[in-house]
Amino acid sequence: MYTRKVKIYAGFERFWHWTQAVLIIFLALSGFEVHGVYTLFGYEKAVMWHDYAAWAFLVLIIFAIFWHITTGAWRQYIPTTRFIKAQLDYYLFGIFRNAPHPTKKTTLSKLNPLQRLTYFGLKILVIPVQVISGFLYLYYHQTEQVGLHFASLSGLAMLHTFGAFVLVAFIFMHIYLATTGTTWISNIKAMISGWEEVELSMDEVRAEAYPKVVRASEMGYYFLDRDGYIRDVNTAWLRIYGYSSPEEVIGRHSSMTRKPEDAPALREMLEQVLAGQKIESRIVERVGRDGRPGRHLLTAHPVYISDKIVGMAGFIVDESKNIEQEAER
User: Fold this and answer.
1) Where do transmembrane segments lie in this chain (predicted)?
2) How far is CA 111 from the centre of its chain?
3) 314: exposed, middle or buried (C-beta count within 10 Å: 0-12, 13-18, 19+)?
4) Cβ-count burial of 29 within 10 angstroms (0-12 exposed, 13-18 middle, 19+ buried)?
């Protein structure tokens, strides 16, 4: 498995996550004490601290809504059914046999399909119900005094308590699933530092490796656009032609590398490749920076972007020394 460390979580996102977690846990502890489940702070202090935490939670929600809207992060929670069966199979069975994760986490797509549905439900239904029912319960008599009549006090209490049980169940499930990363603590560390080891597909590994291999290759690499202009070369290509920097050639027409009489052959070769054909091996004459002629072995392949040929790329190997040695013999 190949991985790469990627910045997934922004600073405010991590602050919001951990602050929200602390507040929800504290609200649950103080709230259940208010219901008489146990004694921790004492009834009066539990009520007081529960009210303070509720206001802090409301302020955090307001800032979080503003951040989600201004950054576009709200799109992360749009539900989707794509890969949902694969994700469910992964949680039920695949995770126990080290199966690959069916979805990939990125900065723009941090949540798998089940997480999207879960968080969408929390943000649209559970948390709003908790906040509204909690403040209606807190200020029940004040709302009556101004002529607003909502559900009965006991009804609000039951609704608020049910929501609390849902959030507590979510916390336990969330903690468990947080340990199902590459290591049991990797997801937790990512939410602290913001950086996470993300698994790469073989296509991504190739995309990472090929440019480095090309740059370091002893064979000259080139890329021409559809009009025959040079768009990229590596160090070996520059050395073979006698140039010192890419700026000397990039943006100039490839005909500068050939004799005038060889220009039609170059144009014919480009048209051939743009038609989708490959040139596996061809000896061609070249003209270096100082006008000195030479020969090299050339390969040429069409370059595709979104199934459209956008140019020609390949490698060259200097054959001048081999030809000179054969001539001396």
Assistant:
1) 21-41, 53-74, 120-140, 152-177
2) 10
3) buried
4) middle
As given in the structure block, the two tokens for residue 199 are: 């698994």
Query: Phi, psi at residue 145, to the nearest 5°?
Result: -65, -30
User: 202 CB contacts (<8 Å, ≥6 apart)?
Assistant: 2
Of all helices (H) and strands (E), which one includes residue 318? strand 308-318
> Which residue(s) pair with 5 in the sheet?
197
**Token couple for 102:** 């069916």
Number of residues written out for the chain: 329
Residues 94 and 130: their CA atoms lie apart, in Å, by 34
Supply 78's token pair: 């749009």
CA distances from 195 to 48, 74, 199 (A): 38, 20, 13
Token pair of 89, please?
A: 């199979």
Contact status, residue 74 vs residue 65, Cβ threshold 8 Å:
no
Measured distance CA(33)–CA(46) in Å, rounded: 7
Residues 106-142: pLDDT tens digits?
766 788 899 999 999 999 999 999 999 999 888 887 7
R_g over Cα of the chain: 32
Encode pLDDT of 197-236 as tens digits.
Answer: 877 766 666 677 778 888 889 999 999 999 999 999 999 9
Please give the angle made by the CA atoms of 209, 229 and 240, to the nearest 5 degrees.
60
Contact 204, 228 (CB under 8 A): no
Strands 230-233 and 308-318: unpaired
Q: Are the C-beta atoms of 2 and 199 separated by less than 8 Å?
A: yes
Domains of the chain (ranges; CATH) run 2-200 (1.20.950.20), 213-328 (3.30.450.20)
